[in-house]
Amino acid sequence: MSAERVSVREKVLSANDLLAAETRGRLESDGIFSLNMISSPGSGKTTLLERTVDMLKPTLRLAVVAGDVQTQNDAERLIRHGIPVAAIETGGGCHLNARQVATSLEALPLAETDLLFIENVGNLVCPSSFDLGESMKVVLMSVTEGEDKPLKYPAAFQRAGVLVLTKVELVPHLRYSTEQAVENARSINPDMVVFSTSCFAGDGLDEWVEWLRARVTERKRSGEGAGS
Amino acid sequence: MHELSLALEIRSICERELAKLPESQIAALGVSVGAFSGVEVESLQFCLEVVMAERFGGVRCEIELVPGLAACLACGREFRVKRAPFECPDCGAAARGITDGQGLQVSYLEVE
User: What's the whole-number average pLDDT of chain B?
Assistant: First the structure.
């Protein structure tokens, strides 16, 4: 019997992307600005969120989806800061997917949320391939990881709108050039917004928080515009 | 790192396609993988052969690699990139970003 070639041309992640698009529509209609936080393990995603939550909680309504391979440690840390947190334990999965996020959002008070953080599993490879329905991806890079992270993991840096350098208080103890790290990131993604932060010393956190506040205001305005 | 789950997703796409073609068997499967899709080709090949054989018996799994393309920020030229940093071969400026080679799709099935 002769073989017949049938054209398929279907994106392998089309099921994920479809669900992510639904989540995006839902978050947008609720006027929520959302960020998908991606980095290697130990770059400081949870610590940055703890500091951010403390600074923004008095004026904005926040919520977090926290993903981990095992344990709910990150979620427990964030709950102590008095905000709604939904934990996803992937049980070995190296990234969050759109279904896990859509399901976990059911547990959050979205109608009373301005800003949603999705803390992805610590991994610079896989999470960048999976759209979760977020407004924007943020990639974190701690200074101890070296300047060449963007060159080694270009996909994560290419798809993120924001780069947050963390632990910059350690730079004097390292052979590390912040300028080189930022230049490497911009060689892949020239449009990246960059923040240099230290959650320990407080550097750069005001700028980061103000930027977040501006995005939330922008989202509310565009929501009102669309509704009228 | 997640090639097994991608292979399972590809197999479900094949199952849906095959349901439209009664009395057919899959002889071959074509998948295109972008150079910047984050997919490890050898690992995907291995996982695909395993999961396809489990459901459909022997299926030839053909993976085509789609090269990465980036666009120059300064002169607009599109050029092929293998690895970062993405600098324009004409003017040396940084590229705006990858314009092709990030995708992963099932391109065709061969049925008999």
Answer: 91
Which has the closest alpha carbon to A12: B23, B75, B14? Answer: B14
pLDDT digits (tens, 9 = 90+) for A21-32: 999 999 999 999
The position carrying tokens 């959002």 is: A105
- Within 8 A of B9 by CB-CB distance, chain A residues are 12-13, 15
What is the structure's pLDDT at A26? 96
Chain A nearest-CA distance from B106, in A, is: 5
pLDDT surpasses 90 at B27: yes
| Chain B partners within 8 Å of A129 (Cβ) | 2, 37-39, 104
